[in-house]
């Protein structure tokens, strides 16, 4: 396919550039008035229209921008049922932690998921994948974490594997057995961690069904010591970690993630000096902000501006899940990062493409416009300027997701 007269080809990072940090995040490389050629699903060539080598064209993109498809490096999009009533309880004054303490929250989703068949879960998740595709997502990480026993965690991971087979999105799967302590282990958190280490991780590893292992390392969930045991076990099988941390309190999750070479540490609403320093020492661990969770829970936003100003890289992801962020719209995530955390639109684009690809181990192939890379692209609607993508919030400014 030959696409011509593109107003701007955005995100043409060099082939060896797998993440971008600090001030460079705003300097997203753009070719103005360009053409791009896709051959057999691969970006064959692109450049300025001044050097356009052909007479023919398949798609006239006058007035439109072409970008790498969004990479959403953190979702829980396989779930059995929405939790709108908890949302209403929060409007009335309960906190996310209050709801979790009285047995709702994640455990509510666990009850619902255990009761549903693999087929039903697949059908619902397929609709969500189709929805995020329409708003520009081309690569997505999907976590388990609503099964909390071997049978149901495997059920979720099989649904994710089936989505990978049956859709054209690139999908990475993550085992999140340590998302909460299930009801049958209430009062025996360590027993549940033992079970994860003894039974769940070895079986999941044997089936090769998870790319990464995640832990909700936070106050009221799993401790740093629990998290270390789980990450170490996963590493024995060559599976890298990604963690949820510093959402409810700064208990040392970021520092551990950096020490253990995790691919990303996500949430980060409660950063402290030790967490900043750990990230500065460990560029292999991508700091990942989830501003839709802050928006929806009414908790502080991740201090993205301070992170970038200190020279760190930042990725953005949706956290699409039924409790804290029931949306996978990466355009809205970008708007929130800009309006609520002082990110520049160009920084938000870098964070939602190249850096979020890095946060799921895909930045060699995704998140940038590069010759020879898979053509995971999006074409915007006709827009007056690039910033309009996030400025015009609530609309879908993506015309086509090409995968
Ligand atoms: O990333 N913080 C922990 N886990 C999810 C929420 C999951 C849920 O509430 O169902 C998150 O926000
Ligand atoms: Fe999450």
Automatic annotation (TrEMBL):
Pathway as given in its UniProt record: Amino-acid degradation
Instruction: Report one GO cellular component.
Output: cytoplasm
Q: What is its EC number?
A: 3.5.2.7
Amidohydrolase-related domain location is 235-382
Q: Which EC class, in a word? A: hydrolase
UniProt-listed InterPro entries:
Amidohydro-rel, HutI, Metal-dep_hydrolase_composite, Metal_Hydrolase
Highest taxon of the source? Bacteria
GO aspect biological process, one term: L-histidine catabolic process to glutamate and formamide
Under Pfam families, the record lists: Amidohydro_1 (PF01979)
Q: What is this protein called?
A: Imidazolonepropionase
Q: Where does this protein come from, organism-wise?
A: Mucinivorans hirudinis
């Amino acid at each position: 396919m030959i696409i011509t007269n593109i107003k701007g080809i955005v995100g043409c990072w060099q082939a060896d550039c797998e993440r971008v940090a600090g001030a460079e995040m705003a300097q997203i490389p753009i070719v103005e008035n360009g053409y791009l050629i896709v051959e057999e699903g691969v970006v064959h060539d692109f450049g300025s229209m001044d050097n356009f080598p052909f007479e023919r064209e398949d798609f006239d993109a006058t007035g439109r921008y072409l970008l790498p498809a969004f990479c959403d490096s953190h979702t829980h999009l396989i779930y059995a049922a929405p939790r709108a009533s908890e949302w209403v309880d929060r409007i009335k004054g309960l906190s996310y932690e209050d709801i979790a303490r009285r047995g709702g929250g994640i455990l509510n989703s666990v009850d619902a998921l255990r009761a549903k068949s693999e087929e039903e879960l697949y059908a619902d998740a397929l609709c969500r994948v189709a929805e995020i595709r329409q708003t520009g997502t081309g690569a997505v990480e999907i976590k388990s974490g609503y099964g909390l026993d071997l049978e149901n965690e495997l059920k979720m991971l099989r649904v994710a594997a089936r989505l990978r087979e049956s859709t054209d999105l690139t999908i990475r799967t993550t085992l999140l057995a340590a998302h909460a302590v299930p009801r049958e282990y209430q009062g025996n958190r360590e027993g549940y961690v033992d079970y994860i280490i003894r039974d769940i991780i070895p079986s999941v590893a044997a089936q090769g069904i998870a790319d990464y292992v995640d832990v909700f390392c936070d106050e009221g969930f799993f401790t740093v010591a629990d998290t270390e045991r789980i990450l170490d076990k996963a590493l024995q099988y060559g599976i890298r970690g990604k963690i949820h941390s510093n959402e409810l309190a700064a208990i040392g999750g970021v520092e551990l993630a950096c020490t253990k070479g995790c691919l990303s540490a996500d949430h980060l609403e409660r950063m402290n000096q030790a967490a900043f320093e750990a990230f500065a020492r460990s560029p292999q661990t991508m700091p990942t902000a989830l501003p839709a969770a802050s928006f929806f829970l009414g908790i502080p936003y991740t201090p993205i501006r301070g992170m970038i100003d200190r020279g760190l890289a930042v990725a953005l992801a949706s956290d699409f899940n039924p409790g804290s962020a029931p949306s996978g719209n990466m355009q809205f995530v970008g708007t929130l990062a800009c309006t609520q955390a002082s990110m520049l639109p160009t920084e938000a684009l870098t964070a939602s493409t190249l850096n979020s690809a890095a946060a799921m181990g895909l930045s060699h192939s995704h998140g940038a416009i590069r010759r020879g890379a898979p053509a995971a692209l999006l074409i915007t609607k006709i827009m007056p300027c690039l910033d309009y993508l996030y400025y015009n919030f609530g609309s879908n400014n993506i015309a086509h997701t090409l995968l």
